[in-house]
Specification:
- The protein is of the alpha+beta class and 382 residues long.
- Strands 1-2-3-4 form a 4-stranded antiparallel sheet. The protein has a 3-stranded antiparallel sheet with strand order 7-8-9. Strands 5-6 form a two-stranded antiparallel ribbon.
- Helices cover 46% and strands 15% of the residues.
- Strand 7 and strand 8 form a beta hairpin.
- It is globular, with a radius of gyration of 21 Å.
- The relative contact order is 0.19.
Length: 382
């Protein structure tokens, strides 16, 4: 849980380093991406210690779910990560469907892939925009990202009724079938997206200041990442070939041709490039999904939503969310509510090595390193 905020700056003494300065950044600070606090101990401008402090946004998400019906918890999963509600819905639906042995129609499987990859585009382009804000570019890259993000959110709104809290998945399928006009608009957006990526990369990737501020900064080697349970683009930036879409083959991902980009250095620059390259792969997946989307029902006709009581047992469902492995562990005692409900949040686990990545760098670097990890505090604190 979050500790009470102390003085913003105070002098401290360390037997090894001598006189140091301790700076409290957050929980309300533009660089901390939400209500998050870092207590940073500095020797001059160099970081000798960094203590993450979180819990300010704890909402009792898991305990509330244990007092709510299985379906009643679906909208709460939207709030875990406001950028990724479609993926959050799907991860929870996967766990419940595994628990209940619930099949999903082919069309719904394709629609889930489409929503998940559109969500990955939203998440990654926003990550790049916010990362450059942390580098001091004063909003221009972020506004470029928001321009494209708005187009996808418009699609989400016209389909689900909500731009960000979509509540779209159901156990055994999806809530609404998109119209041919919606599919045509989404397909056109996807086909135009590489042009935006080219424009974005021309502006950002070779930027001299960006290269100087990110290459060799915040290195994380493969062994450190594996030992800490890091997943997602942060793990792959360290060269570890692990993507749950390939490993588990959930949904219909084995039907799609795409590659898993890998980094070589595990630094902030590689974490940036992972997002750019993964957006290009998402476009490939989306184009295949729109091309091969079958006709048919979007819900299993035998799916039971109201009065849903899965048999006694437990299940863990997970997927490759934009930030890493998002999983739900459920235990059923045969009642309408889960007996136990636990979330495996990528944002929290990916945050655990912030100190290791920041030691020896300047306080300005810590802001950029945190930006490259990609966290949403609703998921960290739950």
């Amino acid at each position: 849980m979050g500790a009470a905020a102390g003085p913003l700056v105070r002098a401290v003494h360390d037997e090894f380093h001598g006189d140091l300065l301790e700076v409290s950044m957050g929980p309300q600070h533009p660089s901390t991406h939400g209500v998050f606090r870092m207590v940073v101990t500095l020797d001059g401008e160099r970081i000798v210690k960094l203590k993450p402090v979180f819990g300010y946004l704890h909402r009792n998400h898991e305990k509330i779910a244990e007092g709510t019906s299985y379906l009643g918890s679906m909208p709460y999963t939207d709030r875990l990560d406001y950028l990724c509600s479609m993926s959050n819905n799907w991860a929870y639906a996967l766990a419940v469907e595994k628990l209940a042995g619930q099949p999903v129609p082919d069309r719904a499987q394709y629609l889930r892939v489409i929503m998940a990859e559109l969500t990955r585009l939203v998440n990654h382009m926003c990550l790049v925009g916010f990362l450059f804000n942390d580098l001091g570019t004063s909003f221009t890259p972020l506004l470029y990202a928001f321009r494209e993000r708005e187009k996808i959110l418009d699609l989400f709104e016209s389909l689900s009724g909500s731009r960000m809290m979509c509540n779209y998945q159901r156990f055994g399928g999806c809530r609404v079938d998109p119209t041919p006009e919606w599919l045509a608009a989404a397909s056109a957006l996807v086909n135009n997206f590489p042009r935006f990526l080219d424009e974005y990369e021309t502006m950002l990737t070779g930027n001299e200041i960006m290269l100087a501020r990110t290459q060799g900064i915040g290195r994380l080697n493969a062994q450190q990442a594996i030992n800490a349970g890091i997943t997602g683009p942060g793990l792959r930036a360290s060269g570890v070939d692990y993507d749950i879409r390939k490993v588990d083959g959930y949904g219909f991902y084995p039907r799609f041709d795409f590659r898993v980009p890998l980094g070589a250095h595990g630094d902030t620059y590689d974490r940036y490039m992972m997002r750019v390259l993964e957006m290009r792969e998402s476009v490939k997946i989306l184009q295949q999904a729109f091309r091969d989307l079958p006709a048919g029902p979007i819900m299993d006709p035998k799916a039971k939503l109201r009065g849903f009581r899965p048999k006694i047992g437990e299940a863990y469902g997970r997927l490759e969310g934009p930030k890493g492995e998002l999983g739900f562990h459920l235990i059923s005692d045969g009642s309408p509510n889960p007996y136990r409900y636990r979330v495996r949040p990528p944002s929290l686990i990916n945050l655990t090595l912030l100190e290791e990545m920041s030691l020896g760098h300047t306080i300005a670097d810590a802001v950029v390193i945190l930006g490259s990890i990609d966290i949403v505090l609703g998921e960290v604190d739950r």
